[in-house]
Amino acid sequence: MSLDAKKWLLSLVLPLIITVNVKATADYVDQHGLFVITIPPGWIYQAQESDSRLLVFYGPQQDQLLYIEYFFGIEHDSALEFAHTVLKHFDAEYGLPDFTVLSELESRDLTGIPAEEIVYSYSGRKKRMEHRLFVINRQWGLTITYSDSFEAYDTNRDQFNYVLDRWSWTEVNIQ
Amino acid sequence: MKKTIVICIVSLFVMHNVGFASSNQFLAGFEKNIGRSAKDELVAAYGGEIQLSLHEHLKVNEIFNRLVCAASNTPEEYSLTILNTQEVNAFALPGGYVFLTKGLLNLVGSGDERIAAALAHEIAHIEKKHGLNAILRQLGLNVMMEIGVILLEVPLTEAVHIATQALINVVQSGYSREAELEADRLAQEYLVAAGIDPAGMIHILFDLLRIKDQQIGAAIFNSHPSTDDRIEQLLERTPDFWSSPQPIDWFTVQTGQKQDPFNRFEVIAKHCSEGNEGITLYDLQNQKEARWVANLDIRELDFSHNGRSIAGIVCQAKTWEIWLWNRFGNIIDKWDFGSEKVMNIAFSPDGSQIGFNRINNSKLEIWVGFVNEKTKLNIAQALSGTIVGWDQQGIVVIDEQQHYMIKPPQIKPIELSEPVPIVIERKPRVTPNLTKTEEGQSFRLSQPSMFEL
User: Fold this and answer.
1) Which of A40, B136, B201, B203 has the most neighbouring CB atoms within 10 Å?
2) C-alpha–C-alpha distance, residues A84 and A90, integer Å
3) How far is it, in rounded angstroms, from Cα B272 to Cα B299?
């Protein structure tokens, strides 16, 4: 096969491979056996930034970020108590710069486990918005956070709902 | 002059009638006053106060609170201020005011035990009233004067003003040799009481020594004892925080196996130069000797319990060294012992320290070195035994058929009392620009530009 023919074939096949790859969703089974999540198309797991206490995913848009932090041996009795304690620190003088609550704490059911959720903004390298869920179950806790630039948040936030709608706990956690 | 005479006369008059309680109460108030007054001037002189990021703030304050609770009966009197200057420095003012500079925090990075050491040293100055005593000496006044001041009820503002200026001079020029050495000693006691490794005190002094010639770090060397003298004192004293050797039953301990926990490398025998029996690492995956140890005369090897680090005793040209590698064969550190033979290396369970025997003037000594640090401690001067390994509890040594355990200071990990989730942003990536060449046949990589994915 000539070089031109190879190029022609590649130009046909390559976009197909990329399209398939970008469109694909991925189920992520958490390393501690607590949950399974479906990551929307175009989102990429960040191994360099993740460790045994933190999972990080980057979205297809410039500022999109999803991160899940684990808290083992946590002493809070409820997600509400956990959330109140955390928000007190976020709002303190030493807390997040320009911390502003945009949507007050609300209770929700995250596929069988009660959670508290809040939306707020703060000034990082640029102004950002975060939608954060607090979960407490037995002796462990999670915070599940979608973060995006202030301007892009409204446009992109459905991708976080996509993750939450497909969230599933491993069986042992909802017994 | 007239005022001083009046004060002295009045002081002498009232000495018999004023109890210690009121005197102490007055002194505490006086301390707080001059401390508060000096604080404002010091903050202004050092670029103002800076707010650390949320988690940095929480961590530094967690360490600070642990230390003041361990050191003081009145921890609530203490406050910590971070100064917005790149100068590497730390201060303490009477009344519980402690200052760290951003430059110092940048220098120590994430070294929690170093931050703790700097804070503990400053807390010790306050607890021992080094600042107050220094200004009283400098002004030629004594306790009688303050008693006079309080009874006269007149020149308190003036006295505070004069004392404040004297205090700023003292703080900026450094305390006496005795005060600095005492603060170092006491700081280590506070560190141990707070569950923090007292060796952090030595680590940070080595850091300061490293930057000594840089102008930015010069101010912290204003204290009279040289940093070398301070390190020497601490190297002698730190082993006291380890337990004395306790006889144990051998079967009660479990030490490392000196094997790669990931089974990638196998330790095998090898003839070294000059006919010495040595060892080397065989890479089971590549089916050959590991390239990075092939040309070395290695006498012993040990793997950290997590398998991330490898330590080896290397003897070349009659010079003894301990080398540390990561799993990829990159050298992390080298410790040079000259002609003094070293043997029996053993990693601590967390991989942060290595125990080893060192033959000094025919005596078998028991030492501990800190990975990535210059600090090495002779931890059991009274015992001359062979290191068998490092158990979860401490170093196991055998001497004349009897096993002993030497325990390190009890350390509590520095964790936030109230866990607070992190807040992160996407990291910017450095990516080269792709430029198509004029011919259009190839691409050229040009200067990277910063953008966020």
Assistant:
1) B201
2) 10
3) 9
Q: What is the pLDDT of residues A12-31, one digit of tens each?
A: 444 444 444 445 677 888 88
> SS3 for A132?
strand
Q: Identify whether the C-beta of residue B159 lies closer than 8 Å to the C-beta of residue B32.
A: no
Shortest distance between the Cα of B57 and any Cα of chain A, in A, equals 7
Chain B residues with CB inside 8 Å of A124's CB? Answer: 423, 425
Q: CA B448, CA B434: separation in Å to the nearest integer?
A: 9
Q: How close is the nearest chain B Cα to the Cα of A70, in Å? A: 9
Q: Tell me: pLDDT of B170 over 70.
A: yes
What single string gives the DSSP state of each residue in B136-161?
HHHHT--HHHHHHHHHHTSTHHHHHH
With a pLDDT cut of 70, the percent of chain B lying above it is 80
Give tens-digit pLDDT for B359-391: 988 889 999 999 999 999 999 888 889 999 998
Nearest partner of B147 among B63, B26, B319, judged by Cα = B26
Q: Which residue numbers of B have CB closer than 8 Å to A's CBs? A: 51-52, 54, 57-58, 418-427, 452-453
Give CA–CA dist B394/B356, Å, rounded: 13
pLDDT of residue A15: 41
Q: Which residue has the tokens 């975060």?
A: A130
pLDDT at site A160: 94
Structure tokens at B177: 């040799």
Name the burial class of residue B220, with classes exposed (0-12), middle (13-18) and buried (19+) by CB atoms within 10 angstroms of its CB: buried
Pairs of residues, one from chain A and one from chain B, whose beta carbons lie less than 8 Å apart: 55
Instruction: Name the minimum distance, in Å, from the CA of B421 to any CA of chain A.
Output: 7
The pLDDT-based confidence of B239 (bands split at 50, 70, 90) is very high
What are the distances in angstroms from CA B11 to CA B110, B137, B138? 51, 17, 19
Instruction: Return the closest-CA partner of residue B255 out of B133, B367, B113, B398.
Output: B398
B313: closest CA among B349, B362, B346, B264?
B346
pLDDT of residue B275: 67
Tell me, what's the pLDDT at B443? 67
Residue B98 · residue B79 · CB < 8 Å: yes
Q: Which of B111, B40, B121, B114 is nearest to B81 (CA)?
A: B40
Question: Which phi and psi angles does A93 have, rounded to 5°?
Answer: -55, -35
Query: In chain B, what residues touch A141 (CB-CB under 8 Å)?
Result: 419
Q: Between these two residues, A80 and B253, which has the higher pLDDT value?
A: A80
Q: What's residue B274's pLDDT?
A: 66
Cα–Cα dist A100/B357, whole Å? 59
Yes or no: say if B101 and B91 are a contact pair by the CB < 8 Å rule: no
Whether A159 and chain B come into contact, CB under 8 Å, resolves to no
Per-residue pLDDT at A1 exceeds 80: no
Q: Which residues of B touch A56 (CB under 8 A)?
A: 424
